[in-house]
Every structure is written in C-alpha cells, then in structure tokens.
Amino acid sequence: MRKLKTIEMHRLTVDEFKAASKTPLVVVLDNVRSLHNVGSVFRSCDAFRVEAVYLCGITATPPSVEIHKTALGAEDSVEWKYFADATEAVDELHARGTKVFAVEQVTNSTMLQNLDTNENERYAVVLGNEVKGVQQTVVDRCDGCLEIPQFGTKHSLNVSVAAGIVVWEFAKKTKR
C-alpha cells in the first residue's frame, strides 16, 4: 500500500464543484462562536458536496483567516449565506419546501441512524452554539430533532464533529 499523491485523487476544481450535483442538504450554524469550528464545517460540507451553509447570528462569515485555517478553501467552494437570526434561515428553508431538523437532545428526538429520508425531499440541519446548543425558538420552528447516539460519559460532541457525523449520514441516505 502507498499513500496517494494529491494529483492522483482527481479532486474537483471550485468551478467543477459548483456545477456538480449536491447532497440535498443545507447546514445551518446557529450562533457558533469558534471560527475554527465554522471552517471545519465548511470543509466537511465540501467533502460531501452539501448545497450550502447558512451562517446565523454571531457565527462569523468568510473571508476570515481563522475560518480559512480549517476550511482550507472550502469556504470558496461551498455556497453560504448569512442571516441575523437562525429563525429567519429556518423560515426561508421552509418557504422553499425544505424539511428542517435541529441536531439537539430533546424529548422525542429521532436517533440519527433511524432517520428515514425521501429522495424527493430537501433537508436542512441546524447545529447550535458550543455551550447553549440550538436556541429553543429555532427548535420550535423545526420539523423535528435529530440526536447522535453517544455511549460514553459525556453528553455532547464538538459542533464541527457533530456536523461531520450528520453530514455523512445524510450523504449516505440521500445519495442519488
């Protein structure tokens, strides 16, 4: 076995990425304070060809040296949009017929692996602040909540790690 060289991986250019078919998913960041987490989310969204990232509230937006440090240019390939509040983002997504889920621990949440997707649906997931999670007003507007099962002593994951897990699950379930 030998490691592949970058040239052997046949990665898309930014223009090819923008023209390529996408995973029917928008990732919404609700008041994520760490620019490194924002950059990491962009990078995961690029890896799985997510449609867009919506940045809300105090979540920083590109261009930013700190976002770029972890995004490594994914902030240029993945479409993004800013909203003053995540409720506005959820309302816009609903107006476009998108099914929106908060990634949060709530009563009656759906375990991520149990989510059923429909090939004709578009989806969005809302991930929240590193300390407070998704705002309750945003949770109230969502169609449901997804929970990542955890089996250790901690009750949460880093937001960028959670985003990677959720995006991968949607990419697997909605591959067209």
TrEMBL record:
The entry's keywords: Methyltransferase, Transferase
Domain of life: Bacteria
One cellular component (GO) term of this entry: cytosol
Single Gene Ontology BP annotation: RNA processing
TM segment ranges: none
SUPFAM superfamilies: alpha/beta knot (SSF75217)
Pfam families for the chain: SpoU_methylase
Segments forming domain tRNA/rRNA methyltransferase SpoU type: 25-167
GO molecular function: RNA binding; RNA methyltransferase activity
Protein name per its UniProtKB record: SpoU rRNA methylase family protein
Organism: Hoylesella shahii DSM 15611 = JCM 12083
